[in-house]
Amino acid sequence: MTLYFIGLGLNNEKDISINGLEAVKKCDVVYLENYTSVLNCKKEDLEKFYNKKIILARRNLVEDDENEIIENAKAKNVAFLVAGDPLVATTHIDLFLRAKKEGIKCHVIHNASIISAVGITGLQAYKFGKTTSIPLQNDNVEAPYDALKGNLSLGLHTLFLLDLNPEEGKFMSVNDTIRYLLKIEIKKNEKVFSEKTICVGCARIGSEKQVIKAGAAKELLKFDFGNPVHCLIVPGKLHFMEQEGLNIWV
After folding, report:
1. To bridge 28 with a disulfide, which of 23, 73, 76, 185 should be the other Cys (CB 3.0-4.6 Å)?
2. pLDDT (tens digit per residue) in 57-98
3. Domain identity same for 149 and 189
């Protein structure tokens, strides 16, 4: 029996690869990871397109010691569907390693990820530094700000991935992220991030309704990026080709 880790891409049910779709169709149980990101479609759209019943996999289901996904994969073909690429989130790598230790055959089918898709902004992928996430509850969290500081010291771009809680309809926005960075800046009294810092706000990357806006933090605070999922980029030192690319989104 096989546990398939299948990336769904960034937009909707049709972004799955042919290999991924063929794997789903031969699976007995299909899970959809439901806590690191979401697609621009409903679970029912996936079920109709794949012709399979889908079980929403919340964090506790994926990370529990007594793991339902692994137990099912010992006797059945199981699909673990993930928005984006299936192994970008560390929690999914943990599931992969645990399954391998149990002697379960694992097969990974990759797809587009936000890590690569941000190339649409004009910023070069190899010039990004440490990617960091900002949780919804961030009052005492400074690690993302520190990651930005470290990246900027090396002239590197910073990609902020933003927290979400689909069950409660909570999604962190570009605007929330800028306010968070400004708050930490004041608290630490450093010169890392200000209202004049150039940022790139992104929403629904990879969809027909994607939004990309580049400008000073103060300008982006006034902009409505609409529905999730959002991310924020703070560029480091720009190559002239990158500057030309960013100018498209001003």
Report:
1. 76
2. 999 999 988 899 999 999 999 999 999 999 998 889 999 999
3. yes
**Residue 187 — very low, low, confident or very high, per pLDDT cuts 50/70/90?**
very high
End position of a domain, from candidates 97, 112, 127: 112
Report how far residue 159's alpha carbon sits from residue 126's, in angstroms, rounded to the nearest whole number: 12
Determine the structural domain holding residue 175 and report its residue range: 115-247
Region 112-132: mean pLDDT is 96
pLDDT value, residue 91: 86
